[in-house]
Amino acid sequence: MMTVDTKPGPDVAHLRRPARVRLAWLLLVLAVLTLVMLASVAFGSRAVGWSDITAALAGTDDTLNQAAVVKRIPRTILAALVGAALALSGAAMQGVTRNPLADPGILGVNMGAMLAIAVGMTTVGLYTATAYIWAAIAGAALSSLFVYAVGSLGRAGPTPLKIALAGAATSAALASLVVAVVLPRGDIAENFQSWQVGGVGGATWDSIGHVLPFLAAGLAICLLCARALNSLALGDDMAAALGERVAVIRGIAALGAVVLCGAATAVAGPIAFVGLIVPHLCRLLVGLDHRWLLPFATLVGAALLTAADVVGRVVNRPDEIEAGIITALIGAPFFIYIVRRQKVREL
Question: Which domains, from first to last, does the chain contain?
């Protein structure tokens, strides 16, 4: 997850936005997030009215519509939490590596978490939610280190495109290993395959309670590194001249990103491209200052994944399309666009 590139990066002030513009975008993002969360509660295999929603929020589940709302509330909250975690993880990874292609899915971090869970389930009998999360974080960390090591080979060092290619190859290899590990175990294969697609359909209050402390820790770590990531954007030499301990900051910020990604993957499966799309969009809205970029990415990521979950429930009623498929349909063309940009070399 680290890089040895010491070339000066873009001036953080170059795309700075006035405070009133940022506040306007903040209010708009909060409004959109509120609307998509309400839509997530209202729409699904059956649509419900406002009276049913208010009754369910008051604790009533006497009718089928009210019971549906009660079931959708934890799903909505988990979608927002996972989307926020993946977007913040991607923004932190891009800041640490100065790599516009950095994303937990593209760099193989998600697949590393998934393989660790698969191995734990089939060998040592992991069965608790907390154990799944710890295993996923360990797998995500090992996968990140491996991808960085492979992408650093050669004279040019860890260029963005080399790391992205190493991540794609690693993801493919790890996906094959997951199949090889899980397929002989018919007792867990069916449930694992449904989780492997990536979605929040199995959300419960228990799962939210188990993953929330990990997400809160990862959020705090990344946000505390925001100012230092601004210095890293100026280049390693300049950051060191400003008094930053470059290697330490990269390690801490990368740790926060891995914790977020591993915990989100453990509870929702490997959902790709949220961490790629959202940071680029937020840079257009609020500029390059990570003190604004990271919180905005958190909110926009929550709105994006919640909206993807709503779309997946509505377009194929009464069946569902998992949110991970919807984000892949959106993210794959965006990834191609980023790769083809002339300035793909670094942020």
Answer: 12-45+73-340 (1.10.3470.10)
